[in-house]
Amino acid sequence: MNALDPAHNPCSSASHNIGDTHVYQPIPFFSSASDIEPPIPPDTDLRNIRWFKLDMVGLLNSDFMQLASPEEFKAAFLLWSKSIHQIPAGSLPNDEAILAKLAGGYDHLRKPWKHIRDMALHGWSLCSDNRLYHQAVAGTVLDILASVRVPTAVTAPQSAMEIAKKNGAERQRRFREKQRNAQATVTSPVTPVTPAVTLPVTPVTLPVTEDKDRDKDRDKEVTLRITHTWLL
């Protein structure tokens, strides 16, 4: 009887021992090969990226959101997030034991994982590099690459964060500049209004007062003359 025969080796499903060497045998989630080309370049490395955009409207209105239980949603979200820091970014290994751990520390042989596995991996497909990809996650990775302009692992770990910070600072600078320009446009024409309105008002009353004074003097003069005439 051959000790290495899988039929007689209880550890053959995941590993076997050859002398002192431990050889791990992956447990494929998808057993059939695929000829689909991966949507992400093979050396894409975004392990220093700490953010990604989330299409909330698309997610909240998706069939997955309506059908997934809280446990399934949590496991799926962990897989989406952790796939960003895999290489290539946005992919997952075709190994159920590793997938179960990434989805929240599950044991791939136990019922809790068996209960949520299909929905947790909803939307993931096997590609020709024997890794799993999700259409929405791949779109997120490509969006990150476009925003930080880092195409491959050669420049990604160090420069991606630096470029992202510079882009953010430039956006903030433009925003502050637009705010200052808007405030200047609103306040500048208000200043000359007061002198333009009040300056011509002052001389208007002067001739009126002089005319009244002259009329009063005339009346006094006429009265004096009449009085003088009567006295004579």
Please summarize the sheet with the most strands: 3 strands, antiparallel
Evaluate the radius of gyration: 42 Å
User: Helices and strands, in N-to-C order?
Assistant: EEHHHEHHEEHHHH
**Shape assignment:** elongated
Note poorly predicted spans. 1-13, 154-159, 192-197, 226-231
- The count of strands amounts to 5
Whole-number mean pLDDT: 74
Strand portion: 5-15%
Q: If strands are numbered along the chain, what order do they take across the biggest sheet?
A: 3-5-4
Helical fraction: 40-55%
Kindly name the structural category: mainly alpha
Count of helical stretches: 9
Straight-line distance between termini: 168 Å
Outline the structure in words:
The chain is mainly alpha-helical and 232 residues long. The protein has a domain at 40-45 and 54-166. The protein is built from 9 helices and 5 strands. It has helices at 56-60, 63-67, 70-83, 96-102, 111-120, 135-148, 156-187, 193-198, 205-231; strands at residues 15-18, 21-24, 91-93, 124-126, 131-134. The strands form 2 sheets. A 3-stranded antiparallel β-sheet has the order 3-5-4. Strands 1-2 form a two-stranded antiparallel sheet. Helix 3 (70-83) crosses helix 5 (111-120). The chain is elongated and about 130 Å long.
How would the blueprint of this fold be written?
Layout: E1 15-18, E2 21-24, H1 56-60, H2 63-67, H3 70-83, E3 91-93, H4 96-102, H5 111-120, E4 124-126, E5 131-134, H6 135-148, H7 156-187, H8 193-198, H9 205-231
Antiparallel strand pairs: 1-2, 3-5, 4-5
Helix pairs in contact: 3-5
